[in-house]
Specification:
By secondary structure, this protein is mainly alpha-helical. The chain contains seven helices and two strands, in the order αααββαααα. The longest helix has 26 residues, at about 140-165. The chain is globular.
Length: about 200
């Protein structure tokens, strides 16, 4: 039962599912005339997939157990599927970052925003765990996938801020209570000793 659930989570991070979700997200953003957000979504996601493929072909680490061939849209290609870094993890982390960013900018109700961000943050954790539990990856493959995704996403944010002047500098917002606590303590602590 647990193995079956993990296989379902693995499907969420598959190239086909992520590609479908990217197209839908970019299409909705384009319909809303949020062109730069649509371009940002496509650039981050497709760029991440290309980086993943290049790294896999460069490092060429075999998967746990037997070697397997690459599958695309249900067709098996005569190309060895390598494990490092985890493609499922990179794809789902990047998509989650994009959706979290969009939630942060466009959801006005604070409660709904926090719930959406928490759910979107949980999905990559479940997908990453599923890749280890199904025997497709080692833990280091997952860590590398997360690290590379974070670096690539931050680089894309930086480039977007510099060249497009998009308001993409705020990534994951602090919870309102945490923000209040930081502001409270920073104003209550004197900057210099009392005379």
């Amino acid at each position: 039962m647990i193995f079956g659930m993990m296989e379902r989570f693995t499907t969420i991070g598959s190239g086909e599912m992520i590609l479908f979700l990217i197209v839908v997200t970019a299409f909705i953003l384009a319909l809303m005339r949020l062109w730069m957000y649509a371009v940002f979504t496509v650039n981050v996601s497709i760029g991440g997939m290309i980086i993943n493929l290049l790294l896999k072909m460069t490092v060429q680490r075999g998967r746990p157990g037997e070697a397997s061939d690459l599958e695309v849209f249900g067709y098996t290609m005569d190309i060895t599927s390598y494990r490092f870094p985890s493609g499922h993890t990179m794809r789902i982390v990047l998509l989650s970052f994009i959706l979290i960013l969009l939630c942060h900018h466009f959801i006005k109700r604070e409660n709904l925003k926090v719930i959406s961000i928490c759910l979107l943050a949980a999905i990559p954790v479940l997908v990453a765990a599923s890749r280890i539990m199904t025997g497709a990856h080692f833990f280091t493959d997952i860590l590398a996938g997360v690290f590379i995704s974070v670096v690539w996403f931050q680089l894309c944010l930086y480039v977007s801020n510099v060249f497009w002047s998009l308001p993409l500098n705020a990534f994951i917002p602090l919870h309102p209570y945490l923000q209040f606590g930081i502001q409270y303590f920073s104003t209550s602590i004197p900057s210099h000793p009392a005379q």
